[in-house]
Specification:
The protein has about 210 residues and is α/β, with parallel strands linked by helices. The protein contains five helices and nine strands. Strand 7 (about 155-160), helix 5 (about 165-180) and strand 8 form a beta-alpha-beta unit. Helix 2 packs parallel to helix 4 and helix 3 crosses helix 4. The longest helix has 16 residues, at about 165-180. The protein is globular, with a radius of gyration of 17 Å. The mean pLDDT is about 95. The structure holds adenosine-5'-diphosphate and magnesium ion.
Length: about 210
C-alpha cells in the first residue's frame, strides 16, 4: 500500500459568524489513528469532509503527501476511503452491483471472486443478490465497509463508523480498522462514542 501522510495546518471552519473550530494542527501518518470526538453539532462530520476535500476550510490547509510527494487536489480523492452516514447506495441495485459499480468508478478492476471476498469479510455473503433497498441500516453500513475492503485506500476517513451496527458489527469494524492500521493505512475516526477511539494514538476534541 502506498504511504500517505495527511497534514492539517491551522484548519478552521466557521458558518456565518459561528466558529465551529479553529487552528487545528494535526499530522496523520501511515499506521496512525486519530480520533475526532465531540457532541452532536460540534463539527466532526465537517472536519472529516474538509479532510476529504469535499468542503473548504474557512482558513488553513490540508496537505496530502504520497511517498513524500504532494498530491494534487484533483487526485486526492483516490487516496481516501470515506464512510459517512451521508453516503447512500443505489436502492434498486443489489449489494454486489453497488460494490462493483463503486469499485469501477474508482478505476479499479476486481474479479467477481475478489468482490465476493469483500462481501464475505463484512458478513454479507449470501445476501449480495438482494437489493440494497431491502437491506437493514446495519447491512448498509456493512456494505460501506465492503467498499473500503475492495478499495484498500491508504487513508480511511470514518464518520460514525459503527452507527446502526450490532455488537458483532462493532467488533468487525474494530478488526477491519486494526487490519488497515497494520497495513499502514492512516485512519481518522469521528465519533461521539469515546470507547470507539480508546486506542487512537491522538485525539482532536471538538466542543
Ligand atoms: P457533528 O458531525 O459533530 O454532529 P456537523 O459537522 O455535522 O457536526 O455540524 C456542525 C455544525 O455545523 C452544526 O451545528 C450544523 O448545523 C452546522 N452546519 C453544517 N453544515 C452547515 C451548512 N452547510 N451551513 C451552515 N451550518 C452548517
Ligand atoms: Mg456528524
Amino acid at each position: 500500500m502506498q504511504k500517505v501522510v495527511v497534514e492539517l495546518i491551522r484548519v478552521s471552519k466557521k458558518y456565518g459568524r459561528r466558529q465551529l473550530f479553529a487552528d487545528i494542527n494535526q499530522r496523520i501518518g501511515p499506521g496512525e489513528c486519530v480520533g475526532v470526538t465531540g457532541p452532536n453539532g460540534s463539527g466532526k462530520s465537517t472536519l472529516v469532509k474538509i479532510i476529504a476535500g469535499l468542503l473548504r476550510p474557512s482558513a488553513g490547509i490540508v496537505q496530502v503527501r504520497m511517498d513524500g510527494k504532494a498530491v494534487d487536489a484533483e487526485k486526492r480523492m483516490a487516496c481516501f476511503g470515506l464512510i459517512s452516514p451521508e453516503l447512500l447506495f443505489y436502492q434498486a441495485m443489489t449489494g454486489y452491483e453497488n460494490l462493483q459499480f463503486l469499485v469501477r468508478a474508482r478505476g479499479l478492476a476486481l474479479s467477481d471472486e475478489q468482490l465476493l471476498t469483500c462481501l464475505e469479510a463484512v458478513g454479507l455473503s449470501g445476501r449480495q443478490q438482494e437489493c440494497v433497498g431491502t437491506y437493514s441500516t446495519g447491512m448498509r453500513q456493512r456494505l460501506k465497509f465492503a467498499v473500503l475492503e475492495a478499495l484498500r485506500p491508504p487513508v480511511w476517513l470514518l464518520d460514525e463508523p459503527t452507527s446502526n451496527l450490532d455488537e458483532e458489527g462493532k467488533k468487525l469494524v474494530k478488526r477491519l480498522v486494526d487490519n488497515a492500521l497494520a497495513q499502514q493505512a492512516a485512519v481518522v475516526i469521528a465519533t461521539n462514542d469515546l470507547e470507539e477511539v480508546r486506542d487512537a494514538g491522538q485525539k482532536i476534541a471538538l466542543a
